[in-house]
Amino acid sequence: MSYPLRVFSPRHFNVLGVIALAAASFAVAQSTSSLTESSSNPSSLVADPSPEGGSAAPAPSAGGGDSTHRGYGMHDLASRFTGEIGGGFNAPIGNDLPYITWGGNVTAGAGLRFSKGFSLLGEFQFLGNKLPGAFVAAGGGEGGNAHIISVTVAPVIDLFPKRTNSIYLTGGGGYYHKSTNFTVQECCDFYGYPVTVTANSFTSNQLGGSFGFGLSRKMGGIYGDGKTQLFAEARYLYIHTPAITENNGLGATELIPVTIGLRF
Questions:
Q1: Bridge partners of 78?
Q2: Strand, coil or helix: what is 177?
Q3: 79 membership: H or E segment, kind and range
Q4: Which of 40, 43, 193, 213 lies 20 to 30 Å from 207 when distance is taken between CA atoms?
Q5: Cis bond upstream, residue 187 (ω within 30)
Q6: Domain boundary residue, one of 75, 95, 126
Q7: Distance, C-alpha 198 to centroid of its chain
């Protein structure tokens, strides 16, 4: 059985490009807004004349310290830190249907919050799926699985950052490692039980990308304005794995990972 070569189509690049452009525009708008607020704050411009006729010094803020360190512009990096952890399931679509079944995922990420509405995360994700019985039998195995490990960069754009319940856009791209494994049972371990061993395996390393949306709810805080969020999201994932016409290739990998977790 043969399948045509699958590559990134223009629609995939267009959608990912729109998300990247939206994230960049949002970050620039937030930075401009922060600078405008700082320049319009009278307290940052108040100065006491030097008794020696020297230059004026900025007045301290009400809470003490140098007022030039207030706001997002000079905020300590520790306060900008954001992270996430979650898990869920994966649904195969498109080319994957004959070669992969449903599975699960685990996701963890860390990055910086540049504004209330824009964060940039580095994400690590593991996706594990089983192989269909017919495909396993054709490969001479008794069982099988497909494992995908990825390291990607993912922007998160919160559309309603001041609300307790919000909607956000996310996506990104990076490095993906995929392994397809066929297993058989052999006899036996020390206690006499059958042992599952890998009879055949092939791997690939390539670039990929995803985009999607999610729902979030702020947790904690007096008015529900805490930094910790409960989130649920769905993405479309495309990995440019080798075509069926290539050695150990099964064509492009397409999945819908659904993840539920906490972002803080």
A1: none
A2: strand
A3: helix 77-80
A4: 213
A5: no
A6: 75
A7: 31
SS3 17: helix
- 8-state DSSP, 31: H
Q: Are 144 and 183 in contact (CB under 8 A)?
A: yes
Q: What is the pLDDT of residue 164?
A: 92
* Token pair 């930075």: residue: 31
Q: Taking the CB of residue 48, how many other CB atoms lie within 10 A of it? A: 9
Q: How many domains does the chain have?
A: 2
Is the distance from CB of 179 to CB of 145 less than 8 angstroms? no
Are 155 and 256 members of one domain? yes
Rounded Cα distance between 232 and 87, Å, is: 10
Say if residue 84 is exposed, middle or buried (CB neighbours under 10 Å; 0-12, 13-18, 19+): buried
CA distance to 16, 163, 218, per residue, from 194 (Å): 47, 55, 49
Q: Are residues 200 and 247 in the same domain?
A: yes
Rounded to an integer, what distance in angstroms lies between the CA atom of residue 228 and that of residue 219? Answer: 5
Rg (CA), the chain: 25
Identify the segments of the chain with pLDDT beneath 50: 1-57, 60-71
